[in-house]
Amino acid sequence: MTESPRVPTRAEIKRWRQYLADERAEASVYGELASRRTGEERAILLGLVEAERRHEAHWIDLLGEHANDPTRTALRTRFLGFFAKRFGSVFVLALMQRTESRSPYEADVDATDAMAADERLHTEIVRGLAARGRNNLSGTFRAAVFGANDGLVSNLALVLGMSATGVGTGVVLAAGIAGLLAGALSMAAGEFVSVRSQRELLDSTAPDPTARQVLPQLDVNANELQLVYRVRGMPPQQAAEHAHEVLNNLECIHVGLDTGSLSAQRDEHDSIGSARGAALSSFLFFASGAIVPVLPYLFGMTGLAAVAVAAVLVGIVLLLTGAVVGVLSGASPLKRALRQLAIGYGAAAITYLLGLLFGTTVA
Fold first, then answer.
1. Nearest by Cα to 157 from 359, 343, 339, 362
2. Are the C-beta atoms of residues 282 and 296 closer than 8 Å to each other?
3. What angle do CA 349, 355, 356 make, to 5 degrees?
4. Is 161 within 8 Å of 352 (Cβ atoms)?
5. Residue 88 has what DSSP assignment?
6. Which residues lie below 8 Å from residue 229, measured CB to CB, with a gap of 6+?
7. CA-CA distance, 291 to 304, in Å (whole number)?
8. Cβ 322 vs Cβ 303: under 8 Å
9. CB atoms < 10 A from the CB of 105, how many?
């Protein structure tokens, strides 16, 4: 007699159907991302789709006739699918990294060891893909977040500190606008000087491309060209051999002074960017944050109501920027958001208390 298959319990069916729905949704997310990629990244994402389909087949086999019953995908996964279809950004990969790391398969007896191992590797694969995207936007993103946060916190502290002294609304508004302009211009000027100085430093250390014109006149026996290569870091023997080779092959003179180093120099210039562009972006990032605590006063609010609205608006933006930082870093968005909020509110609270003390002293 053949043993009849075990009838799954209602709880098992519910759990397996949820797994099935999530596997299908994750495969869809990876498929959407793959449709927006080319080359190696596309191939890797399609490999993840194939793996999720294998897991999907496992749960279909266990569910049997229950496999086609509708089950809602987890809200988080549906959210990721929505963003993958419309944006296909690094944010989706960063969130998928956290989703894969939370796989329950290692603790579930109904999932195979291979499936649990797959999910563990998927975390590392998605981590690597997300890291590529983070590297591509890290500089711009860091400037945007830090610039906006500086504007938010510094101007909120300024506005609350001035409000606490008891001065009129017009004075608080003027101080907020002055703080916005002063901070944004200071950030822009600092960024301009920093980038311009970096570029000038690179220019001062760049090889002179016209120096190669004197190679035909060099004394082969003295061979001072080797000193050029030694000062650039070549060992003495290698420098002498390379210089001798160059002088004996002057028809290939264009390789003599390492045009590769010149292209590397250009790459460094490109990665630094233009001083004007950096200054403008810093101005805009700071101003976009600094305008938030001033908004209630611009719309005519006064007193504690304006203070409360300014604090709430800044708090919302701090939570958003903190959550975005958490997503991109693969950490908990909630923890990063609360940390950002605590730091911003802490600085503003200290300034507000000092304003109260100063106002009382003056009175």
1. 343
2. no
3. 90
4. yes
5. -
6. 238, 239, 242, 243
7. 18
8. no
9. 19
202: tokens are: 């690179």
| CA angle, 313 then 317 then 323, to 5° | 145
* 89 Cα distance to chain centroid: 11
| Closest by Cα among 213, 216, 212 to 228 | 212
What DSSP character marks residue 69? Answer: S
What span, in angstroms and rounded, lies between the C-alpha atoms of 217 and 225? Answer: 11
Burial class of residue 261 in the structure, from the number of CB atoms within 10 Å of its CB (0-12 exposed, 13-18 middle, 19+ buried): exposed
345's CB contacts (< 8 A; 6+ apart) are 311, 315, 318
C-alpha span between 191 and 40 (Å, rounded): 36
User: How many CA atoms lie within 13 Å of 239's alpha carbon, on the beta-carbon side?
Assistant: 14
> Which residue type is seen at 281?
S
Token reading at 141: 């993103």
Paired tokens of 155: 């101007």
Whether 126 and 96 have beta carbons less than 8 Å apart is answered as yes
Predicted model pTM: 0.56
- How confident is the chain (363 residues) per 10-residue block, as mean pLDDT? 65 88 86 84 90 91 78 61 60 75 86 89 84 62 76 90 87 90 85 72 56 49 62 78 67 45 47 66 87 91 88 91 73 82 89 79 44
